[in-house]
Amino acid sequence: MHSLTRFARQGSCGLIASLMLNNACALANAPRAVKIPPQPVVPVPVLPLPNKKAIISGALYHPDWGVFNTGNNAASGFGVTGGYGQARWAEDWSALARTSPAVRQKDWFNRLKYIRLNNNGSIWLSLSGENRLRYIFENQPQMGYAGKTNASRVLLRNQYGADLHLGEHVRAYAEFIYGVAGGSNTYGYQLGTERESLDLQQGILEVKGRLLGARMGVIGGRQLFLDAPVSMQSPRDLTNVQETWDGFRGYAIWKRFRLDVFDFLQTNKLPQKVFADGTNYNARLYGAYTSTALPSFEFMGQKSQMFADVFFLGYLYSGAAASIPTASPGGLQKGSSRRDNIGVRLWGNAGPFSTSLTGVFQGGQFRPAQNSLHTRSVRAYAVNATITYNRPDWVGKPGFGIQADIFSGGSDSKQSGSVGTFATPYVPLPYYNDLSLSLTSQNLIGVGPVANLAIRPDMQIKFHVPVFWRANTQDAVYGGNGKIYSWRNNLHGGFTGVMPYTQFSWNFAPHWAWTHDIEGILLSHGMRDAGAREGVLYMQTLEFKF
After folding, report:
1. Given Cys at both, which of 89, 287, 340, 382 links 173, Cβ 3.0 to 4.6 Å?
2. Interatomic CA distance for residues 206 and 303, integer angstroms
3. Does residue 31 carry a pLDDT above 60?
4. How confident is the model over 250-301, as pLDDT tens digits?
5. CA atoms within 13 A on the CB side of 72
6. Residue 320: what are its φ and ψ, rounded to 5°?
7. Is residue 544 within 8 Å of 147, Cβ to Cβ?
């Protein structure tokens, strides 16, 4: 704690969204939405097709950010918004005020999405809700390291929000959560991410307006933060309780350039009591993100749009996630860490090809908890790339390509000099590489094919078959939630294993989605000899949203 305080003084202050989105935007002659690499995002329930009058300048139930509407609004920095958003406050249902009563009445829940509170409609309220039932089965969780077999978890998440707009420049949003969890041979419930008594999940106040030719705003309070590469930070949607932050962000969006600055402290989800969530002062996320929309161009007869992003993400944290391995198998050196991530990302579409290339240099320091040991510098890196060939004119509108990742490793026998292991303490997206979280984005090389197919308009299927190696055989194997495996005595070779993954999703009715995720864990001889166990994960999710 004291070492982290010293550090703080040194630190710098879909796979599927709405299946109706593209058709609706075309009706309004909106700018064509640019394809992006398949984002393995939990499916969003299908919305009823809105009337033309409900669509404003290409924005469907979210503010119109111009070219930054790309990727179902992901380019804006507020997450995917295909009708319903990853962050529900990123939605804007004021378009319903301009639809006829006959159209609004086609969906009963429309009466909850735009509630006029004064005569001219400048003050209005929007209500949202989610009920999600999830079942997870793992026969060898954490490759056998969890000490459980045939673990079954049943998770029920209930989230309800209210978005109050006070004129054009001020709005407030509050979201409440209640999470229930049970099962057999369970593990991990003590972390505060599975069970949650009634509490404030998000609570923000936003002040916004136009200044210097840009749409600007400041958002303060407890909130989801999604303006970072999915390989580095995510909303932690695998469990009942998402990752939220206490702090502020300021944004400015011009016609072809945007800027986001932020400074957050992690929400503390413990103790598990009613309205007991506080702030974790031992975990901080801060920095700035910029994105430039490059000039549009034609390639292979198709309109193309690329974005160049430059960003700085600062991590400041202690606890289990900050520990590093020692030379002794199973040994850990405790401490606190500051990670300074300087990165660039080039992404978008070039004709039928969706591309994303991210490079990050990670500097900073590791400060051992034991005062007699010297502070060590951090010198690590990550490179992430995806390219997908999309054919919407073929049956099933398939996309297929390849994803490759390198997250640098260090040396567990090296107890001085720089730390070379890349760190991602704030929940890299599990769907990105490994759904089971058996492995995480540290000391890891992964490469494998990706594919997606629309069996029919309301059914989607996705495949990913990554093959993994350790980036440095002198370093440990790392798992999710800050886990460092003790398998080192007999561990040999860099090859780790293969984890084939399939996701099938059916939006069987408006507001409803039913998803099945299956992952196999096939390990190398070296991993099995060291004590790791092969297994399978099956997850079924039934979700209702309004």
Report:
1. 89
2. 35
3. no
4. 999 999 999 999 999 999 998 889 999 999 999 999 999 999 999 999 999 9
5. 26
6. -60, -40
7. no
- Which among 289, 287, 219 has a CA at the least distance from the CA of 247? 219
Two tokens, residue 307 = 């974005």
Amino acid at residue number 332: L
Is residue 59 very low, low, confident or very high in pLDDT (cuts 50, 70, 90)?
low
Do residues 408 and 423 touch, judged by C-beta distance below 8 A?
no
Burial of 193 from C-beta contacts in 10 A (0-12 / 13-18 / 19+): buried
Distances (CA, A) of 395 to 33, 350, 449, 452, 502: 20, 22, 20, 12, 20
* Residue recorded with tokens 């075309």: 26
β-sheet bridge partners, residue 156: 133, 180
Which residues have a Cβ under 8 Å from the Cβ of 94 and sit 6 or more positions away?
A: 114, 121, 124, 165
CA distance 264 to 453: 38
For residue 215, give both structure tokens: 């749409």
What is the Cα gyration radius of the chain?
Answer: 23
User: Residue 52: is it exposed, middle or buried by C-beta count within 10 angstroms (0-12/13-18/19+)?
Assistant: exposed
**What are residue 240's phi and psi, to 5 degrees?**
-70, -40
> CA dihedral in degrees (94, 95, 97, 99; nearest 10)?
-160
Residue 480: its pLDDT value, please? 86
| Rounded-to-integer distance, Cα 396 and Cα 375, Å | 55
Question: Residue 466 pLDDT more than 90?
Answer: yes
> How far is the C-alpha of 257 from the C-alpha of 307, rounded, in Å?
9
Sign of the Cα pseudo-torsion (135, 157, 39, 455, in order): positive
Please, which residues have CB within 8 angstroms of residue 26's CB and are 6 or more apart in sequence? none
Structure tokens at 340: 């300074």
| Peptide bond preceding 38 in cis form (omega within 30 of 0) | no
- For the residues 360-367, what does the mean pLDDT come to? 97
| pTM strictly above 0.90 | no
pLDDT tens digits, residue range 501-523?
999 999 888 888 999 999 999 99
Residue 217 CB-half CA count within 13 A: 20
